[in-house]
Amino acid sequence: MSSVQLRLRQAAPPSAVAAGLIAVVVGITSSAAIVFSAARAAGATEGQLTSWMLALGVGMGVTCIGLSLRYRVPVVTAWSTPGAALMATSLHGATMAQAVGAFLLSAALITVCGVTGWFERGMGRIPVPLAAGLLAGVLVEFGTRLFGSMHGNFAVVFPMFAVYLLSRRWLPRYAVIAALAAGLVAAGAAGSLHLGGVRFAVAAPVFTAPDFSWRVLVSVGLPLFVVTMASQNLPGVAVLRNDGYSLPVSPLIGWTGGVNLLLAPFGCFGLNLAAITAAICTGREAHEDPRRRYLAAVWAGVFYLCVGIFGGAVGSLLTALPPALVAGIAGLGLLGTIGGSLSSALGDERWRESAVVTFLATASGVTLLGIGSAFWGLLAGLCTALVTHSRRRPAPPAPQRSPDRSRIRT
Description:
By secondary structure, the chain is mainly alpha-helical. The protein has one domain (11-192, 209-349). It has 18 helices and two strands. Helix 8 (154-170) runs antiparallel to helix 9 (175-190). The radius of gyration is 24 Å and the shape is globular. 53% of the residues are buried.
């Protein structure tokens, strides 16, 4: 093997490249429609919508590549899916300029949380079993969706599952890759791939000057900040810690907020640490050596840059891949992470009950005050731990009786 081939193999291990690609495919296909809805709610034109995808793709690509190479840790970023859902229902009646003002406020607050270290200090006080229960609750939906998608799409999903099991027996490192290939072949045979309608066009940035409307800032900007921190960055940190990666959290939050701040006028509404897609790049399927898994996040960043450059093609690609294929490959890619999270959550008997409460509340999908279940699940677990771990004051020791000297013979 030549030196060029050796360097290429070291920089682009097939499992890491595949993990990065799967992370991007899952992240884009599962929530791009929500982003489009949010942009439409603000009255975005076709050019502005394409600019949104360009800004988000560049922001995610730069932060994935830069932070992963800086810390040699698989740091995967994503757009705020709960934030997009929030905007899709809250931006009606607002202008694009007012929406950009809300983006800037949210990004500025996130940057402050990173620079000051407030977020990291709060995370340091969260017990590991509760963080693992939070992560398991976030991911369990994707595990159940793997089997739920077999109903009505058995011919596509079951071959993926069967190939995955066989590959885990003989080719464990490439099980997810083989499952993805089997899914594409099965979807093509079933006629559910529609690649003919995919159109590729280079995106162009569109600058929108912000308009700071107090109504939009309060109703969109502040909730967007809270949702991004509680429902996205919180489980994102849990993913890294659950897989044994210890690194300073504040710079990650600060850099994602700063890049978000620069790209907000072009449509970057929210950048944060990824949770679901990050778990694909931090598990053993990405690379057997945990020290080399950062390459999966780097390749995810490369693919995100491609998504941003060809932002106009994302919508047509959404219709090309059947939802069952995306759900199946996401579930298979996260099986190991779900199992590890449950093991960490339930391993310590002292925290088991509070971890179960965290898991169940997070998995319920409850949303209150516009904040997702990740925040409320963690809050429920902490309250449970606070009540059940409250220590009673120990009873004072019984006074020692001095010997009865009247009975001692001299």
